[in-house]
Amino acid sequence: EELLNVATTATQEHMLEQQINEVEQFWKERKIAAENYKGKKDSFILVEIEDLTTDLDEFLSTMSNILANRYVKNLRSKAEKVQGDLLLFADIIDKWVECQKKWMYLENIFQGPDIRKKLPNEDSLFQSCDKSIKGLFNRFNVQPFAFRAIKIPNIVNILNTCLENLDTVEHNLKQYLDVKRRDFPRFYFISDDELIEILSNAANIDAIQKHLRKCFEGINRLDIPDPKVKVIAGLVSGEGENVQLNKQSMRAQGEVELWLNSL
Question: What are phi and psi of 211, to 5 degrees?
């Protein structure tokens, strides 16, 4: 009976060790899908995240079952190491994806020179995050395997810092938009993205014109005979009715909320 118990234990331990090795090998060879972002050579984003998350959940469940097995005693240290690597990788991916979402949103905003000039501190913070995120991808993209990510020096700290800074940029951007809405309350009628488009294109009358109907009932566009001079000659309704203005000095230039307040 004692020999039978020893044989059974050895067999079960061998099977568990095979399972642990298979899990470890799978994630050493598991490629993380990425694609070029907006055709830029130095910009990449993670893709197929749902498939990756499904695999992680499945293998973490497998490791939990292995660690709950009564024959794992002699293999516990190795099993816990593999489980720890999986949990660390899952944490890295969660932070990376969250960082990526915020970066993609803000990257569209801070491309505009107007916003960058008006929010220089936030632009500096964003550019720092932009450099860090691209740097991580450049290191990871050479060999884009799951367990290689956990070996990138300080990756968790880098992602945590980026998340904190991107949150700060988003918060300050929101406050900036609130100030603009207080200066021109009709901006409350449009979304944050629409307001950002207006503020990012303060010199582009066409970019502002398309949002006018939401800010002013009955006004479809402005009558500006000479785009270079930007004198507002009249207000045009959706039906084409043009109400001429007597204020020949009214110009569509400067801070958007100020000249819109004059209409």
Answer: -100, -5
- Hey, what are 213's tokens? 């109907």
pLDDT score, position 262 = 80
Cβ neighbours around 168 below 10 Å, total: 15
Give tens-digit pLDDT for 65-112.
Answer: 999 999 999 999 999 999 999 999 999 999 999 999 999 999 989 987
pLDDT band at 114, cuts 50/70/90? confident
Per the listing, tokens 């990526």 go with 100
Give dist(CA 164, CA 54) in Å, integer: 27
231 pairs with which residues across the strands?
251
Tell me the pTM: 0.84
Tell me how far the alpha carbon of residue 130 is from its chain's centroid. 11
* Structure-token pair, residue 143: 């060999």
Bridge partners of 179, per DSSP, are none
Neighbours of 199 (CB within 10 A): 23
